[in-house]
Amino acid sequence: MLSKKIRELEELREQARQLVEAAGLDPWPVIFGIVDHDQLNEYSAYDGFPERFPHWSFGMSYDYFRKRSAYSGWWVYELVLNTNPAIAYLRESNTSVENKGVMLHVYAHVDFFKNNYWFSKTPKDMIKVMHTHAERVEEYMGKYGIEKVESFIDKALSLQYEIDQYAPFMRRAPKTVGEDEHGREPARIPVKRDYMDRFLNPPKWLEERRAKLKAAQERARQLRDETELLKPHKDVLGFIMKHGRLENWQRDILAMIREESHYFVPQIQTKIMNEGWAMFWQARLMTKFAQPNEFIDHADMMSKVLAGGALNPYALGKLIWEDIQERWDKGRFGREWELCKDPEKKKRWDTKANLGTEKIFEVRRTYNDVMFLSEFFTPELFEKLKLFAYEYIPETGAYHITSRSYEDVKKKLLLLHTNLGRPMIKVATGNYGNKGELLLLHFYNGVGLHLEEAKEVLKNIYSLWGRPVNLKTIIKRKVKDPDPMRNRIHPEHPMTSIYEEQGVLLRYDGESLRELALSPDEVKDIRLEEDYSTIPREWIG
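Below the sequence we write its predicted structure tokens.
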């Protein structure tokens, strides 16, 4: 019975691959595994991998997936890994039509992994890497104790994505003469006869030369480290890994976490594109793959995945890909299109350009989500989706709609995906005040840090750095309202206090955390031109 089911799945897999290749997709080979519902939850908790380093957070993720499927009716149809060959899992309870849809979806994902530029630097044997990491962490737990190692991982994970996401694409300057020369022998005086070597290059003289060369190399290394300590760094985790007061096992764990983070970064950078691409091709190719009696079941499957509003990456991504295809097929691009101000003419616009397929493959090759949204989230899509921007208002302790304009909504979408949707933090120096203290800069774009969370992360960084840690940022502070009648004049505004921006330096020295006020001049280097806040100015004075 089992062998019959496997033969049927193999036939479906072969048909699915033929369909995607005929459509122009070019995926790696895919190995499909069949797992039960609970195994799929386990793999989901491990981000699709069969094994990760031991940590309590994976148990919490497993519980989340288990409860979500049990109580909300939302479950995972498939998992696919960015490896070569790709590894994908099918639920053993999937129906035939669900497996057809999942296989097309998986092949589209794998095509994206293989051909999108932002995945080009990721290792394709990551299952082996994860297994090695798990073994090393278990070894450290056996040697130093589970609590000690897990506590260290807790702190390290708070900096998991404080890395330079573009580092794999950077070309490093060639090494200068004298770098990386550990283990080199000093130059010897050339001889014409071997027996003369012990007279012209006596062992004692060579040993003195070796010692001098080693001392010079060590001085050069220290000078490089001291110079690097004073340079700004985007890779906070890497900087601490190299210069923090850490034991070798701790440094190794940071290196593992950093390596895994770089592997996952492209998936975060292209979430909307990647999920939308898979849904786009699944919807299109199932018209050829599904039997007539399976269309309703497949439509039900699609509706579950696409539910949840326009910010669902599956739904938003699919809609944008479809819009690109239609626009380039009908010639709705270029200068003539952009200069046309007649709405009726634009509705009827169709030059029969038929460039849609070529365009979507071009976009798939080079774009990430920020580029994708910036160029292809159009006013027409905005009108179709009826989106709005909202903000948390401290005055009411609730979220309020702050704008219904296209510009503000697009600004918020870009904020959610710029820098992996995280605050931009950089290392300014590792020798702040010439005391070996760490100075971090938060580049302020109108959206402040969550101060309580920032303070806890500073404490974690102190544990890794081993010396006081400082963070320069800008916050909004409530000040006395010079017009007490304003609340009566604007009662409809949920935020009627006066706020001003204040530069602060947060400092943690291992015992106490202090906030020091900074002048406007002292924070002008961290103030960005972009302002992603959509709170109307009249709400805040």
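Residues 203-229 form the longest helix (27 residues).
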